[in-house]
UniProtKB/TrEMBL annotation:
Residues 1-20 form the signal peptide. The chain crosses the membrane at residues 107-124. Keywords: Membrane, Signal, Transmembrane, Transmembrane helix. This is Uncharacterized protein.
Length: 133
């Protein structure tokens, strides 16, 4: 019983020490499937963050990323500077992760709460039945 409790405590504490690696990038143009992730230092171009396009090497396509989300700031919220690649272009700020395990688990919270509360209910009920005998 003590080993089961120890394993349960370790599993519950494990998510506290993990950190999601959500990255901010710049999607090239509206409808494009290319996201540039290499921020060009602290350089701002016309007040928006600037990202590097080094001959197409520092980018991801939408098929390579998970947890993709636009930041709601729209076209022109970032700038892509071409270094040896295509010309400069405005883009849209987005967030993404390259690992599916880094996605937020907010959608699973109700399921986890229901599962743990059900297990607790049956465990307490079993202990009460044993104590009343």
């Amino acid at each position: 019983m003590k080993s089961t409790l120890f394993v349960l405590v370790v599993l519950l504490l494990f998510p506290i020490f993990s950190k999601a690696a959500i990255v901010t990038g710049c999607q090239a143009t509206l409808g494009s499937n290319t996201i540039y992730y290499d921020r060009d230092g602290t350089i701002l171009f016309n007040g928006v963050p600037q990202y590097r396009n080094d001959n197409y090497v520092n980018r991801y396509t939408l098929s390579e990323v998970h947890c993709y989300s636009g930041l709601g700031s729209g076209q022109g919220s970032c700038y892509i500077k071409g270094y040896g690649g295509p010309g400069d272009d405005y883009g849209t700020l987005v967030t993404f992760s390259t690992s599916p395990t880094d996605c937020p688990i907010d959608g699973y919270v109700p399921l986890l709460l229901f599962s743990f509360s059900s297990l607790s209910f049956f465990w307490i009920r079993k202990r009460v039945e044993v104590a009343s005998i």
